[in-house]
UniProtKB/TrEMBL annotation:
Keyword Nucleus: yes
SMART domains: GAL4
Top-level taxon of the source organism: Eukaryota
UniProt keyword Membrane present: no
Domain annotation Zn(2)-C6 fungal-type: ranges: 10-38
InterPro entries the UniProt entry points to: Fun_TF, Osmoadaptation_assoc, Zn2-C6_fun-type_DNA-bd_sf, Zn2Cys6_DnaBD
Protein name: Zn(2)-C6 fungal-type domain-containing protein
């Protein structure tokens, strides 16, 4: 408490007459001299509330605590919480991010941009989402500066920031999501190539490479161009020091790495112009080789799960049936489930390419083995959606599955089954009324803009969903710019079991 500021301390008479008061007690000298009664002094104290300004340290501490709380909430949304989530295939690089984002720098900016934007959209808080957008723009400027300073040979931190921003495009961006995601993937692919495979044999770099490889290959598939990641060096050198052993997920990604080159070969034979096309035999030979490798991988997966599963609590579960769709309560580790989804996705591309190349030879489709049918794998992707969109799966699980959803929709489109129940099941995931908090809506935006980017066009996200437009884009992509329709056999709900199939058999001996 302090005296009233700005007031004289003289007696009432002196203040009223504006004379100097000597403050004598009990009567001042002026009042004694004037022979008047001194009316005394106002000794009541005033109260002023004073709040000291926060120091920089206090402000930084408060902001840091807020950031930690938001980031923690974001990871709770992203990462699966079920008992099956002991390890997921795309969490290696996210684990690196969780361990290192707190250090100031571009990685922290990227992480906070993603966190605040997603939490803001999840909770409907526009201010928080707007703050995330500000951090995103700041991060992009800093990222450009860092790349220029590093002359393209980017650090692990810069690559991590690019990976986070690619996730931002799927989960938070409201426009050009697909095109921006493709740009991020092309940039990361370039960073990897400049550093060479030997740079990813150990440490954080190894986990970044292992975690990002599938996304880079998926982007190469969308662009229909081969990459170096199907070469022997890139398939072996990053694992040469034994930092990690190749999992079933890593092995299926190895096989999917060959799809971009196969699609490039498909473009070279120019199916839409038979009179100018090249000999499709080299393409068919490459397809049959990859098909045999896929069948070997699938048999290995089924052998691993041939016996019942026992969890850490001692509960026993029957062996999963990999010929059937995954249900919401399927007791299978997320890593194996995601590996299986990559297998379905690879089969969709391979079998569609086989059918198109086969037609280019003027051979009837009924001569192909019955299991060569992309629709059955697209159907498995559709019917397994409940597993990847279950409440305990986390938003990251559905984001991972987004590319599988897009590929299945492509298959349904080019086989004139875009209006089928299986296709509708996948399309409904884009409806915010079906998937809470609108993550499905963002995935829908991402897939629609991605489909448009794949054929070099744009799409209006503000208009109502146009299934015919998306079907046209899918047919153009498979036709290399021209509309093409694949006349597939009737789809089956499960994969045809071929217990008699031997890997040493030639494609012609596998004919039904």
């Amino acid at each position: 408490m302090v005296g009233r500021p700005g007031r004289s301390k003289g007696c009432f008479n002196c203040r009223r007459k504006k004379k100097g008061c000597d403050l004598a007690r009990p009567s001042c000298g002026q009042c004694v001299k004037s022979k008047v009664a001194c009316k005394g002094y106002d000794e009541k104290l005033g109260v002023i509330l004073y709040t000291p300004a926060d120091s920089k340290a206090q402000t930084a501490l408060r902001n840091s605590a807020t950031e930690v709380a938001y980031v923690g909430t974001f990871w709770e949304l992203l990462i699966p919480t079920t008992s099956r989530a002991s390890r997921t295939s795309d969490r290696d690089w996210t684990r690196v991010v969780r361990d290192h984002y707190s250090s100031d720098g571009i990685l922290k900016d990227a992480m906070l941009a993603l966190t605040f934007s997603r939490i803001g959209k999840h909770s409907g808080n526009e201010d928080v989402a707007r703050y995330g957008l500000i951090r995103y723009n700041t991060c992009l400027r800093e990222l450009t500066r860092q790349i220029n300073l590093q002359n393209g040979i980017c650090s692990d931190e810069t690559i991590s920031a690019c990976l986070i921003l690619s996730l931002y495009e799927i989960m938070c961006s409201s426009a050009s999501q697909g095109a921006n995601w493709l740009n991020h993937m092309r940039g990361i692919e370039t960073f990897f190539q400049l550093r060479g495979p030997q740079a990813f044999t150990s440490g954080i770099a190894h986990y970044l490479f292992v975690g990002a490889r599938l996304n880079i290959i998926s982007a190469a598939v969308m662009n229909r161009r081969a990459t170096v990641f199907d070469s022997t060096a890139w398939l072996k050198v990053p694992w040469s020091l034994g930092m990690t052993t190749k999992s079933m997920f890593d092995k299926i990604v190895d096989l999917m790495a060959h799809i971009p080159r196969i699609l490039e070969m498909l473009d070279e034979i120019e199916i839409t112009k038979p009179d100018q096309g090249r000999d499709p035999e080299p393409l068919l030979k490459a397809c049959w080789k990859l098909d045999a490798q896929l069948q070997t991988w699938f048999r290995e997966l089924t052998e691993i799960h041939a016996e019942s599963y026992v969890d850490r609590n001692g509960s026993s579960y029957p062996a999963p049936d990999f010929y059937a769709p995954l249900t919401a309560d399927a007791e299978i580790n997320h890593e194996y489930a995601q590996a299986l989804s990559v297998y379905w996705m690879t089969c969709c591309f391979l079998h569609t390419t086989l059918c198109l190349a086969w037609e280019a030879t003027d051979s009837p489709l009924y001569l192909l083995p019955k299991r060569i049918d992309p629709v059955q794998y697209a159907t498995l992707i559709s019917k397994s959606l409940p597993y990847f969109s279950a409440p305990g799966a986390g938003e990251g699980c559905l984001v991972f599955y987004a590319v599988c959803i897009g590929i299945a929709l492509h298959v349904f489109a080019i086989t004139d089954q875009a209006s089928s129940p299986d296709s509708a099941r996948l399309s409904n995931i884009f409806d915010p009324k079906v998937v809470a908090e609108g993550i499905g809506r963002h995935i829908g935006y991402y897939l629609r803009t991605l489909a448009a980017s794949m054929v070099g066009t744009k799409i209006d996200l503000n208009s109502r969903r146009d299934d015919e437009r998306m079907t046209e884009l899918a047919k153009k992509w498979w036709g290399g710019g021209a509309l093409v329709t694949l006349h597939s056999r009737k789809a089956t709900s499960t994969i045809v079991k071929r217990t008699d199939l031997k890997i040493t058999e030639t494609p012609w001996s596998m004919l039904p």
